[in-house]
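Posting this for the archive.
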Amino acid sequence: MSRDTRLLIAGQAARGLGYGFTAVVLGSLLAAKGVGALRAGVLLATIIGGSALTSLVVGAYGDRFGRRRSYGLFFVGVGLAGAVVATGPPLWLLFVVAATGTLSTDVVDNGAATTLEQVMLAAEDAGTGRVYGWYNAAGAAFGALGALGAALVGMMQSSAVVHAWLFVALVPVGLVGAMCALGLSGAVEASEAGRTASTRGRERSKLGQSRGVVHRLAALFSVDAAGGGLVTTGFLSYYLSERYGVSLAALGWLFFAVSAMQAVSVLAAPVIARRVGLVPTMVGTHLPSNVLLASMAFAPTFWVAVVLFLARTTLSQMDVPTRQALVMKVTTPPERTAAAAVTNAARYSVRPFAPLLGGILQQVSLGAPLLVAGVVKGGYDLALWRWARHLPTLGTARSASTSHSVGLDEGEHP
């Protein structure tokens, strides 16, 4: 790996460590403060909406402003957000911080930083999934350490009270990420042609020949994200606390195991994809994981829920590096920042509504969001498989390699 790739993976690892810790703490903090399901859903929706907005801003202006500069600025924001939340602010200020896109409801986020990292990594690996496997594994592995930290904090506490000051953990994360951004070379920046295109007003998005493919993928990814928004780490932490009365320590250990398993699975995904293709890997692992997710709604005890959750985790994240590699594979280099922003923002644009719906569903049954999420995400898998059978290859010179990588028949065209 190049030095830039190692720095980007380090940035992802730092963010995973911080978010792995705070995503677990967030759900427990809301439950401990007596925040109702509906208000908790609104706050989680605000966090997700902020991530979508910042991702779109980066997609529109990131190349012109500078990818390294945008990346460093984001991490400064993470550190400031952690410092503000750590003071135990009133709920309205917490909503303001949530809207900045610098917090996350999950261990691995899909906001502005992911958009930038995804396109900057394409300088070394634009479609095989190899680098994206290591990149996502780093996020999951350090996210596991973050969740482990939450477990240890829970074990050391003399009471069940969860304190806001724990969010101070995001301050060093912001500092480390900013240092990683400073160390990146000019090779990760957009080409001169890309920067020129970004100043042309209507052509700012830079989506050209791949526009149709990217928009279709974005639409499909948004369906998956709508289901995923119902079952974020923050929600699951809240749900398990409310339904089974488990402690922060128990949740920390659980999400440590979940993230550790995710790290292994995302490393396995590119190996499988090289044999069967990107799309078959995505669908073949994601669909059964969603059946297990829906089954969690009927778990009679915490330990049954844990078994189903861990079984689901072995498969659920294999579509992440393959999905990122797929977007880079089906787009040309000048389009990649916009493509990453559009697909990531599409995922995050619909997710704010999911926690709101989850809060409403929980008025009927506490586990209803799990069932609905499994059905919606399973529908996405089937739709992706059906549409991908007709996914075009881009250019005759790359037909063979693209068809093999994506897992489609050669000779298909738009």
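DSSP finds 18 helices and no strands in the chain. The CA atoms of residues 83 and 168 lie 5 Å apart.
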